[in-house]
Write a structure and sequence with these properties.
two-stranded antiparallel ribbon, 257 residues, alpha/beta, 9-stranded mixed β-sheet, globular
């Protein structure tokens, strides 16, 4: 049974993103594998190497440009890649989950489905849960430690306040990875060159006949985020008075505390 890794092709978090239309951004910026998904790829590859499972298959939903991220995953060591192709600029997480579900079902029966806990562009944090519900599989997300013994997966995930919780799940299951789980490998140049020649299986989103009528989200508009900042100086007072004034300002004016 293969391991599947669901990834997303997203703008680089270091890029300066500009809104150029009511629902469009300037897509000339650099796009990369969603950073949280890199931990998913690394964990899947490590598990394959330790357990001897057949293969790691990477899957994404997007346009032709998303093949760049798939080829990066192939260069890292994934065995095959599947692109659910669409030119739609915005696809809500429900349709993405249905698309991933059908694409994986058409390909095989998953042993584990890895994904990042969220994407850095929309940050909906819903797709792994929706995918697990469609497969009727147990799920844990925000995972920072992973172990599999026989047919049981044991993970640690972070909860609110930085606390850790350990849970066990039977195989198959869905695992949403987070920062700190591992150190994603960097592909070597020969592997990058080989990945450019690798075949990517393309499935058209329209051919999957997904029906989410009445439940989908709509992107109404995109607005650039702006921050208004002002500076102030505390002077001509004792250190104790400065500290008291700073606390009052943070508490009552800035409402940070």
């Amino acid at each position: 049974m293969p391991i599947y890794v669901c990834i997303k092709h997203v703008p680089d978090t270091a890029a300066q993103i500009s809104v150029i239309g009511p629902r469009e951004i300037d897509e000339s910026v650099e796009f990369v594998i969603n950073p949280y998904d890199e931990y998913a790829i690394e964990e899947a590859l490590t598990f394959r190497e330790k357990s001897g499972v057949s293969e790691v298959v990477v899957v994404t939903v997007g346009n032709d440009e998303a093949q760049k991220s798939l080829r990066r995953a192939l260069a890292m060591g994934c065995d095959r890649a599947i692109l659910v192709n669409t030119e739609e600029r915005f696809i809500d997480c429900l349709r993405v989950a249905h698309a991933l579900h059908k694409a994986i079902l058409q390909d095989g029966a998953p042993l584990i489905i890895f994904s990042g806990k969220q994407s850095t562009d929309q940050e909906g944090m819903q797709t792994p849960f929706r995918l697990a519900a469609l497969f009727d599989l147990p799920i844990s997300t925000n995972v920072i430690a992973f172990r599999c013994d026989a047919q049981i997966v044991t993970v640690e995930h972070e909860t609110e306040g930085g606390a850790r919780e350990a849970i066990s799940m039977p195989l198959p299951c869905v695992v949403g990875t987070s920062k700190g789980l591992n150190n994603p490998r960097y592909p070597k140049l020969p592997d990058i060159m080989k990945a450019k020649r690798r075949e990517i299986q393309v499935v058209q989103l329209a051919d999957l006949e997904i029906n989410t009528a009445g439940a989908a989200m709509e992107l109404v508009s995109l607005v650039s985020s702006t921050k208004k900042r002002k500076s102030s100086r505390l002077k001509d007072m004792s250190p104790a008075d400065m500290a008291n004034q700073l606390v009052r300002q943070l508490l009552h004016e800035d409402k940070i505390l």
